[in-house]
Amino acid sequence: xxxxxxxxxxxxxxxxxxxxxxxxxxxxxxxxxxxxxxxxxxxxxxxxxxxxxxxxxxxxxxxxxxxxxxxxxxxxxxxxxxxxxxxxxxxxxxxxxxxxxxxxxx
Length: 106
Fold this sequence. Notes:
- The chain is 37% helix and 28% strand.
- The chain is built from 4 helices and 4 strands.
- The protein has helices spanning 15-30, 59-65, 69-79, 99-103, and strands spanning 2-9, 35-42, 49-56, 86-91.
- Strands 2-3-1-4 form a 4-stranded antiparallel beta sheet.
- A hairpin with a 6-residue loop joins strand 2 (35-42) and strand 3 (49-56).
């Protein structure tokens, strides 16, 4: 499983434009083959800061995604950032739920 994280800060006067991009792509990305989840979040302390997340079943699914128009739109939104945007790809080999807390004796 691969998680993608993109963080950016839009200029205040382009916030609505960035939101339009995210609203336009989150649904289509979420139904692409291999996409398990796709979300966009706004920072609680900075309305212009966004975190765009997606989760992919395999690296092949992610590789297919990065060839799509929606991924190009995500890159275009990143270009609007007033700070250096961050994009990370994390390969997940194990996932646990609340049962992990029992195992950790918390």
